[in-house]
Design goal:
10 strands; globular; four-stranded parallel β-sheet; about 325 residues; disordered C terminus; about 45% helix; Rossmann fold; 2 domains
């Protein structure tokens, strides 16, 4: 009988998922990250699934029921999920809610435009103050997952949180985070080599929304966005006119819509300038065809290089 119990115990440890730690996620990229770090020791419950809109999602009663059976709930943080305070109250102390982005260095959201003409300093300052009011300068950009370095940080954060609720498998989680970080580093190196095909003066990334600040910082682009962080923001006629002027002045080759956003404003700019509209970029990491860091980064880098690199593909 003792041998029977020992045999059953060995089988229980060997079968993946039999006693796995349940982890819920509020972003598909976090779901993939939890699987990479946790391996067979975790069971991931995806609350926000590929194809969903992270800017308008709120958990339904069935989602709350799924979350209550988990040890951890991983959220993006940085203000992306406006419902988190309410969710904490609903779940109570049994589920640990972790805002992964909270421990990752932030960059402010800022729509940058070159100065045009010979305005007096006081006039420039006045315009700058007006733009800050209209276009949300200085607010926190929540799209941290566009950076490979941030994904490395996130892997370590997830490993630490998993170890806290399941200390018996801490070494496995540390190893999972190390392997994931190595892969993210390889992806960054690949992206750098691809982006090197684009001349430095052409590294201006014109998008509808300000979702690519972390990407631009990591790969040496200057971001130019028409709208705010969320998809519901509207571009002022002044801001559209400034962007048109900048496209003409700097010979910008392409502008990029996003996979889940209406390209109406960008289409208007394309008609006015004749600039090419590039392949839609994955802004929020929730596209059905690209909802992991790897697939999102690969799609975005290839789309940007195809539109902005010289036809021959040679680096300048």
């Amino acid at each position: 009988m003792k041998q029977l119990f020992l045999t059953f115990g060995f089988l229980a440890a060997a079968l993946p998922g039999l006693a796995a730690t349940k982890v819920a996620t509020l972003h598909p990229i976090l779901a993939d990250l939890a699987r990479q770090v946790g391996g067979a020791n975790v069971e991931v419950v995806e609350i926000l699934k590929p194809g969903a809109d992270i800017h308008h999602f709120e958990p339904a009663p069935k989602d709350l029921a799924e979350m209550r059976g988990t040890k951890l709930l991983l959220a993006s943080g940085k203000g992306l999920e406006s419902f988190l305070d309410k969710l904490r109250d609903s779940l109570g102390a049994d589920v640990k809610l972790v805002e992964v982005g909270a421990k990752i260095p932030s960059i402010p959201f800022e729509e940058h435009h070159h100065e045009h003409g010979d305005k007096e300093p006081a006039e420039k300052e006045k315009d700058h103050d007006h733009d800050e009011h209209d276009h949300h300068h200085g607010s926190e950009d929540p799209h941290w997952w566009h950076s490979a370095e941030n994904m490395k940080r996130a892997a370590r954060i997830v490993a630490d949180e998993l170890s806290a609720v399941d200390p018996a498998n801490a070494s496995a989680y540390a190893a999972g985070a190390k392997a994931a970080s190595k892969r993210f580093g390889e992806l960054k190196s690949w992206a750098q080599k691809e982006i090197a095909k684009i001349g430095k003066k052409d590294r201006l990334l014109v998008t509808a929304h300000g979702a690519f600040g972390y990407f631009c910082k990591e790969y040496g682009f200057e971001p130019i966005s028409l709208l705010g962080i969320g998809r519901s923001d509207d571009a002022s006629s002044k801001h559209v006119a400034e962007t048109i002027e900048e496209i003409r002045e700097h010979g910008i080759k392409a502008i990029f819509p996003e996979d889940q956003a209406n390209p109406k404003v960008l289409a208007e700019i394309a008609r006015s300038t004749g600039v090419k509209i590039g392949e839609p970029l994955i802004a929020d990491g929730t596209a059905k065809a690209a909802h992991t860091f790897e697939t999102m980064l690969a799609h975005n880098v290839r789309s940007i290089v195809a539109a902005l690199a010289p036809a021959a593909g040679a680096a300048k």
